[in-house]
Amino acid sequence: MLLRNFFNKFPNQRHYNNIVLAIDSHQNDLDYISQTALQGGFNVLKSTTGAEGLVLAKRYNPDLIIIDFELPDMKEEEFFKEIKQEQKLSNVPVLVVSTLNNPNDIIDAYEWGVENYLIKPISKKFLFSEMQRLIQERHQTRLGHG
Predict the structure, then answer these.
(1) Which letter, b or e, does each residue of 93-113 get, where b requires 16 or more Cβ atoms within 10 Å of its Cβ?
(2) CA dihedral in degrees (53, 58, 60, 62; nearest 10)?
């Protein structure tokens, strides 16, 4: 589902054109992430499964993917590898936001190419700052400044 931010009070802000894809099987967490992104001026795609998230990622080429580490329909490694193998998605930053705090899970996630792994609960302010940072780094890399 694509949610657009129609309350764009600052159209010259670059992040208002950016898309955040949020994937979480827990509806409350998905809503929390989505609302944080919308309040920050990002457009949002939402999914409760990894398979649907992959379809949305391939279709819309988001600027950031935020995902829970526990997918109900596919192994996390499979999801991350498919994202990183898809040429147009290979440079899209992936942020894991999860309740899992097992060091092995965190190490696996970094080995699979995620940019950061945050453990829930997380404040909206910190989550939003990570969204901004990762998207800004992506744009700088695309422009050859990073």
Answers:
(1) bbbbbbebeeeeebebbeebe
(2) 70
Residue 62: partners with Cβ closer than 8 Å, 6 or more residues away: 18, 19, 20, 21, 45, 56, 92
Do the Cβ atoms of 30 and 46 come closer than 8 Å? yes
- Which structure tokens are listed for 130? 């990570």
Q: State pTM to two decimals.
A: 0.86
- Which pair of tokens denotes residue 125? 């302010």
Amino acid in position 104: N
Q: Which residue type does 106 have?
A: I
Please answer whether residues 25 and 4 qualify as being in contact, where contact means their C-beta atoms are separated by less than 8 angstroms: no
Helix (H, G, I), strand (E, B) or coil at 74: coil
pLDDT for 7 equals 38
Cα–Cα distances (Å) from 105 to 65, 77, 102, in that order, read 18, 10, 5
Q: How far apart are CA 125 and CA 72, in angstroms?
A: 28
Where the chain has pLDDT below 70, the residues are 1-16, 142-146
Tokens 């670059």 identify what position?
14
pLDDT in tens, 72-94: 999 989 999 999 899 999 999 99
